[in-house]
Amino acid sequence: MQTRSQQFLQSEIQSRLVVPHAKGGGKSRPHSRHKHSRPAPLFSAGETVRETGIYEVIHDRAHRSVHEVVMLSSDAFPACDSCGAQVRFRLVRTAPYIFQDEDFEESP
Ligand SMILES: [Zn+2]
């Protein structure tokens, strides 16, 4: 009847929940996974851009509010006209430059 099938279901669920640790059980890993809120690296003026993408420009003493720019890899981060080499760049998101994409590259 209904109760029977319900009981069956329950025991079925329980047997699935109580899965014995077959392999690698009992080994508690050290707390190495702490990289959730890893701060993005900041780049300084004069450094070479490693990855094309959108960068946040953070100016010294916030003489200008943070704004986003596109930087191309192998270019150098420029100095700011106002705060010079104090400006910092933070990678927001990598995104390939269209003409560096294999389907859009200008072929000779
Ligand atoms: Zn500046």
Would you kindly provide a written description of the structure presented here, covering whatever features stand out?
This protein is α+β, with helices and mostly antiparallel strands. 15% of the residues lie in helices and 19% in strands. It contains one helix and four strands; from the N terminus they run αββββ. Strands 1-4-2-3 form a four-stranded antiparallel sheet, with no helix packed on it. A hairpin with an 8-residue loop joins strand 2 (53-58) and strand 3. The radius of gyration is 27 Å and the shape is elongated. The termini are far apart. The model has no long low-confidence stretch (mean pLDDT 83). The chain binds zinc ion. Zinc ion (ZN) binds at residues 59-60, 63-64, 80, 82-83, 87. Zinc ion (ZN) binds next to loops.
- The fraction of residues in strands falls at 15-25%
Order of helices and strands: HEEEE
- The total count of helices amounts to 1
What percent of the residues sit in helical stretches (DSSP H or I)? Answer: 10-25%
Distance between the termini: 77 Å
Alpha-carbon Rg, integer? 27 Å
Contiguous low-pLDDT stretches (5 residues minimum) are none
